[in-house]
Specification:
This protein is mainly alpha-helical and about 350 residues long.
Length: about 350
Amino acid sequence: MNTIRLFASQNILISASTSWYLADLGEFRGQQLLYTQQSPQRLKTLREHALIESAVSSNRIEGVSVDPARVREVLVAPKPLFRDRDEEEVRGYRDALKLIHEGAVRIPVSEATIRRLHQLARGQIWDAGQYKEKDGDIIERYADGRKRVRFRPVSAVGTPTAMAELTADWQRCMDERWIHPLIALAAFNLDFLCIHPFRDGNGRVSRLVLLLQCYQSGYEVGRYISLERLIEENNERYYETLEQSSQGWHEGKHDPWPFINYVLSILKMAYREFAERVGEIKAPRGSKTDLVLAAINRFEGEFTVAQVEQACPGVSRDMVRRVLRELRNANGIECHGRGPAARWKKKG
């Protein structure tokens, strides 16, 4: 729509920073096959972990969370018994991810697909898969009680037309090669978030569609590294660039590049992490041990066992404690206190 159409109607110059992202991601894509020929067991563990991590992180961004002790039951058990709506939505997101992982090539980027992904991600709520019926501004609320309108999305009346145009523009962009696919998918994501077609769950659906479009463009890192977790870890920049790029969107006078570069940076982070986890690891440790170590390395300052558990959904507490003990014995970390309140800190 308003962003994708910029590339159909104008000769837009791509900035040096965007060009560098595209070059780096092209190189990573070229190495993708090499990485995926590594240890099958390691890749299997990465896939399983990414699926769980993505479902947990994407929902947590929107304030929907699951008790770490319940993660495996909710996301792995064949027929889990849900305790609340949050658990149902997190499981639904996992089901949507599974659908994309297993059949991305056959799934069109269409209104029907987007509605289906929303239906899965929102569980059995009354308006799952249905466009919004009422107008609603995107409000930012402050700790002191103040609030402000951050953005006014497309009206409820105008949403069906806007979504039909957006999906049609995507197909034309791909068929006629208006712009590099990675720029196009980031532009689509921005347009989708500015339309804001659903009453709730727009952020989650945007991330599912982003993953689908990445797969269809040949960038499959989201199968092994959670893009949603990286977005959660860089959440402030996500909202900052989204606000920057949405100003003037309705008039077609916005600057899409802050948000586009943000999306490209997330993909680059994912490929770098994938290379570190698979392509450059020579000493074979247990795959789950690697996941815990990677989570610990991301902490700055002190952290708790509970925080490590939250960063490694699906990894047992016993495994987390074992890795912490081994690191402490190797003089790599230190522990202050005892029990659940104990604080851990990396040395050096």
